[in-house]
Structure formats: C-alpha cells, structure tokens
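Q: Given only this backbone (482 positions), what sequence would you predict?
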C-alpha cells in the first residue's frame, strides 16, 4: 500500500501544512490603484546559482574563530564547542517562554541554579546572579551593588579608582552610576603602583576596579596588599572577570579579597563571542552583599526551584526577565563537560601557549615587561616604527598571511602596543605559523618598510582612509534622502 505525499510528509514531521490557497479575488483588485505600478519593476534577471554564489563568496570574507587564528588580546577568542550549540537548541531550552510558570520549567531553573553555584565555587563568591546580559552589563550591576552597599551604610562615597591600563568599560560603568573616576598609575613592573593607590584612596572612595591578571597579562602579585589598602579605607574591591581564563581553577578572586566579580562567559566559558549579542555577564558577590543582587533570584526549596522577584535591599531588575537562557545553557555545558581538573588544565594550557609564543617573538619585537605572563602578553612595535613602519602596518600585513590581527595600541601604557592572546584551544602548529608570519614581517620592515606600509596586498579591501571614513560617513539614508 502506497502512502500519499501528504501522508508521507505528515508521518515524518508529525503534521502537514497544506499550500496556501490562491485568493478568489485577483491581487491587482485587492491593492489600491495608487499603490500599483504602471510598468513592471526593473529587476535584474539572474540565475539562482549566480545569486547563491555571490552571497556564499561574501560569507567567505567573514573571519571568525571557526575560520582561523584569532589572537585578539584581552578578548579570549577561544573555540566554541559545537555540542554546546546543539544542547542549547534542544526544544526544552529553545522554546521555553520567559513567563512560563516555575513549576513547568523546573529543568531550566535547576540548570541556572547549578550554573550560579558552579560560578560561585570557581570564583570564591557567596552567590551569583545570572541576570546581566553582557560583560559591561555585569560591571554596571556590580557597581550598582557597591553603590547600594555604601548607601545602606550611610556613606556618601562618590569616587571609584581605576588603573591606567584598565578596560575602557571600567570607567564607563563607574561614570554611568554617577561616580567620579580617578586613575591609578602602573608601576615599572606593570602592576598597580601601591604608593599612588595609597595617595588616592580615602573615605570618599567607593571601590577599586581591577582585573587580575591585568590587561598586560601580568598577575598582580601584591593583590593581598592592594585589597588591604582598599578595605582599610572602607572601600570595596571589584574584579573585572575579563581575564579569568588565565587563573581558572588555580586561584579565586574571592580568596584575593575581591568583594564583587563579573564573569564574561563568552571569554572564559566559551559561549559565542561578538556579533552584538545576545550575551551574559553574571555578577557574583561576597556574603555581605548578597541582599543587593539584582532580581529575580533563583531560590531552591528542597527539590523545587522558584524565582524570587522581591527583596527590599536588591538593586532591582536590570533585564525584562531572568537572563539570556541560551547563552547560559552553553556555559553550563562547558562547565559540566570539563569538570574541576579540565578547567584547571584550561588555564595551564592558556598560560603555556602565551609564554611559548612570547619567547618565539621576543627577539624581533620589544618586550616591555621582563616577567612571565599569564594568558596574554604585550609586545611593542617601537623598533619597527623607528625603521619606518608601525604597529598598524604590522596588523594589516598579518591579514595577508590569513591571521586576524591582535589588539593594537592598547593598553595605552605600552607605546605601539600589540596585545596577543593565543588561548588554550590553539595548537603548537598554529602558534608556530603565526610566529613565523610575525618574524617575516619584522624582516620585511627591516628591508622594505614601504611594502608593509602598503599592506594588506591580498585582501578584497585594501588600506582604508580611517580618518576620512569617520568624518565623511556614507549613510544610506543620506544617499536616498529618506
């Protein structure tokens, strides 16, 4: 017995949607005459293969960690395991409604609660909130928690200290909360200048924002002293978790004296990075700040999980619902798949790769700090600039070798800076190939700097006039007058 096509499709899909019926009234009679064309539109006539090939060719110009090496310093562009994508796409996660009653989404709430507890253990915090939707959003939440704490203490603290090599979001988040931002200088070894810190911390100081390892890939080996100076003044210590990948499983911010932590799950825990979102920036706090965490909070009563939407000391809601579930599912998968020993191995391999690559390049480029680095390192292109080329030229020339350039000209404390982070997911062969490209570029600058200055030579788009592009924007609405 043969099945009809409709029944065959229904058997595979579980249902069958019949094709749309042709309207009884012709379309030209349904549309007002003023909206109808007098002549056919002048549309290009192209074969489908040509259209497909055009857009596939454009897609091949996109660069990402699935395409090649992406040593973007401070961004931790590690590979995203594809199994995590599959899990996050399961119907129970993908189709869950944010307003679904708690009793109908116990599995999701349990996963989120477990993620909170895992992050608390890893970071040495009393509790975490998964609400913030990005790293900078987590910073904002953390600074709001600090602000709420000082207000509850009756202290009108208005100043936040930020190191001169900090991420740009640090002063932005503090300023957004209404704090005055005060810069703290670095010492010759690349760490916090303790004398400058002592001069600037006082009873008006609300917090010091810090990342450890810092943005130069250097561990603040006097962090306990830093914490003591801050806490003695009645201020709090904030941890920017951008560089947690360098100490994962080996050191905990809470044990260093940090009161508030935010975690970039797209960096350390390998959720998708970039593209404008969605993201997640969980924020964790020490015990004395738990009551200020944003809402809702996931509460466990025996074997039942529920959302707590009210708390008198909370900073309130920062998001319409309770976090970007799909991103957090991916982070949970990463945590559970690795376990304690493999999480520890991640930081070990990241540190090994960074120091290995640094040693390969140190002869051709200046190394600003003669210290072992953690997960990333800074080089200076001052020598190359003196020879007639610049750090920007080096970055552009790397494109010809198929590598994404590293972060350049930041942190500002290093002249002609190149900040390189190889991450733990890259092989020795990849690191060797990148080092060979960098060494060849250094030799090209020595022999013919103008050749490097004209790079890239093989990219579809060559060197742009970036100043002109910023000042003379080519906007579609201007071109059409719309």
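A: Predicted residues:
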């Amino acid at each position: 017995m043969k099945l009809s096509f409709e029944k065959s499709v229904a058997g595979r899909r579980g249902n069958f949607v019949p094709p749309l019926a042709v309207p009884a009234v012709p379309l030209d009679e349904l549309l007002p005459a003023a909206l109808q064309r007098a002549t056919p539109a002048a549309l290009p006539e192209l074969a489908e293969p040509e259209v497909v090939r055009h857009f596939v060719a454009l897609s091949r110009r996109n660069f990402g960690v699935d395409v090649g090496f992406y040593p973007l310093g401070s961004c931790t562009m590690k590979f995203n395991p594809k199994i995590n994508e599959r899990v996050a796409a399961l119907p129970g996660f993908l189709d869950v409604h944010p307003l679904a009653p708690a009793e109908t989404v116990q599995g999701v709430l349990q996963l989120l609660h477990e993620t909170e507890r895992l992050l608390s253990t890893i970071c040495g915090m009393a509790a975490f909130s998964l609400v913030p939707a990005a790293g900078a959003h987590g910073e904002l939440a953390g600074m709001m928690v600090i602000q709420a704490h000082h207000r509850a203490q009756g202290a009108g603290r208005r100043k936040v200290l930020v190191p001169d090599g900090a991420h740009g979001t640090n002063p932005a988040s503090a300023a957004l909360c209404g704090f005055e931002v005060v810069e703290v200088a670095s010492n010759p070894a690349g760490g916090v200048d303790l004398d400058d810190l002592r001069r600037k911390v006082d009873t008006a100081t609300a917090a010091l924002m810090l990342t450890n390892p810092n943005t130069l890939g250097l561990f603040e080996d006097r962090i306990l002293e830093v914490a003591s100076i801050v806490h003695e003044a009645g201020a709090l210590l904030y941890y920017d978790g951008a560089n947690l990948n360098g100490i994962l499983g080996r050191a905990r911010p809470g044990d260093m004296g940090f009161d508030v932590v935010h975690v970039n799950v797209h960096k350390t825990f390998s959720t998708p990075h970039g593209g404008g979102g969605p993201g997640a920036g969980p924020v964790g706090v020490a015990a004395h700040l738990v009551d200020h965490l944003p809402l809702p909070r996931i509460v466990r009563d025996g074997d039942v999980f529920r959302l707590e939407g009210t708390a008198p000391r909370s900073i309130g809601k920062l998001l319409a619902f309770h976090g970007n579930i799909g991103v957090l599912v991916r982070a949970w998968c990463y945590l559970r798949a690795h376990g304690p020993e493999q999480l520890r191995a991640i930081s070990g391999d990241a540190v090994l790769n960074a120091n290995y690559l640094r040693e390969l390049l140190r002869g051709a480029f200046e190394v600003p700090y003669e210290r072992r680095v953690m997960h990333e390192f800074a080089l200076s292109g001052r020598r190359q600039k003196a020879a007639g080329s610049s750090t920007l030229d080096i970055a552009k020339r790397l494109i010809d070798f198929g590598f994404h350039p590293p972060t350049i000209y930041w942190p500002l404390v290093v002249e002609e800076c190149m900040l390189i982070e190889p991450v733990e997911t890259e092989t020795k062969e990849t690191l060797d190939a990148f080092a060979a490209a960098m060494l060849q570029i250094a030799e090209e600058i020595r022999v013919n700097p103008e050749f490097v200055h004209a790079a890239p030579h093989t990219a579809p788009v060559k060197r742009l006039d970036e100043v002109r592009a910023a000042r003379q924007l080519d906007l579609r609405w201007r071109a059409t007058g719309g």
